Amino acid sequence: MVDLSMSLLPFFNKRFYLYLLKELLSLFILSLGVFTFILVLSRIGKIADLVINKGVDVKDIVLLIVYSSPPYLTFTLPMAFLLSTIVVLGRLSSENEILALKANGINLRCLFAPIALLGAAVFFISLFNTTLLLSKSGDAFRSTLLNIAKKGISIEDKEGIFNDSIPGVVIYIDKVNTETRTLSGIVISDDRDEAVRQTITAQNGAVNLDVSSLDIAFLLKNGSVHRWERQNDAYRSLSFTNYIFSMNLMNVLPHNRELRRKAYEMSTGELREALAKAKGPNRYDLAVEFYKKFSIPFASIAFILLAVPLGIRHKTEGKFSGVVYSLVIFISYYVMVALTENVGRVYMLSPFLITFTPDILFSLAGIYAVRRLNHEEQARMPNLWHYISGLRIAKTK
């Protein structure tokens, strides 16, 4: 019987690994989608404004959502992995499947095989996201915003209507020749400056948009300019044969600060180039961002060591107890990240050291918990928590 049991053990391990991996993957994908969607909700107001007030196509809206997801994936990937591990192992423990494994003499460290496989996959996906995908998606996000701005002031479908897509400017074009891209019957009302307001009329003209700088120029012919100046309460009028009315469309884009390339959006190569040129505190911040591209994905590896013992040992305290535990760990991790960054910035410590300190501390805590994985006395902490909770409930009664 012993020989038969030993011969069946590898087959059991494979079946159990596939079962556990399937449970982990399903919950990981679900939690990843939910967490990412919740974070993307912060931009729903901006997106609704684009749809309602700017008339942006649904395709462009979807692209904006997709391109804005990688910064959120930096947080949601390790968080979803941590949550799925604790919840799945907690369910196995509550249904006595972990007890059955121990009763059959199986070392609980065998649980690390499928969980480490998923954790390694999450690590490499996170690393790809922080080192490359963030930079590419940031460029694509800005490019999509530029295209939206360009469509907002396009003249092909703006014939015979008042176009107010540019804040403070109203443009009316009577006729549009789509073949020659020439305009006729042009009226431009410019109220961007309260001190100087002007109205420009022209018989014909053309428009030119520089997508790289978002400068738009109307090349007008045979018209007049009517200007009122508040300071002198003066009205001026002049006629022209050729006139160029130009402006920059940065204000057209909602929340145009998104166009500025941020340090976390840079690739590793771009950060190296920036570090070579930067000096002082800016150089230190760039170095921190460079190492965070590796330390944040490494959190998945640290969570493997900590989540398995915690998932096995935590008792059933409600339907969402695993979610609460994972959130507490995740928040603690990012509080430690922020704390070490501030301390490192104040005392000018090694950027490599301060970015990897949270990973090291969580890994050490996980190693300690793993060493006592098969010992029942590890449950002292949960029991102590239940004892304290019981005393508090008794006092309230």
Biggest β-sheet: strands ordered side by side in the sheet:
1-2-3-4-5-6
Low-confidence stretches: 1-9, 254-259, 377-389
| Oligomeric state | single chain
The backbone outline, from C-alpha atoms, is elongated
Q: Name the beta content range.
A: 15-25%
Structural class: alpha+beta
Task: State the share of residues found in helices, binned by percent.
Answer: 55-70%
List the helices and strands in order.
Answer: HHHHHHEEEEEEHHHHH
Q: Measured on Cα atoms, how large is the radius of gyration?
A: 30 Å
Largest sheet: 6 strands, antiparallel
Number of domains: 2
Number of strands: 6
Spatial gap, N to C terminus: 56 Å
Number of helices: 11
Overall mean pLDDT stands at 79
Summarize the structure.
This protein has two domains: 2-149 and 261-396, no CATH class; 157-248, no CATH class. Helices cover 60% and strands 17% of the residues.
Quick tags:
397 residues; alpha+beta; 2 domains; six-stranded antiparallel sheet; 11 helices; 60% helix; disordered N terminus
Describe this structure in words.
The protein has 397 residues and is of the alpha+beta class. The protein has two domains: 284 residues, no CATH class; 92 residues, no CATH class. 60% of the residues lie in helices and 17% in strands. The chain has eleven helices and six strands. The protein has a six-stranded antiparallel beta sheet, with no helix packed on it. A hairpin with a 5-residue loop joins strand 1 and strand 2. Helix 1 runs antiparallel to helix 4 and helix 8 packs parallel to helix 10. The longest helix has 41 residues.
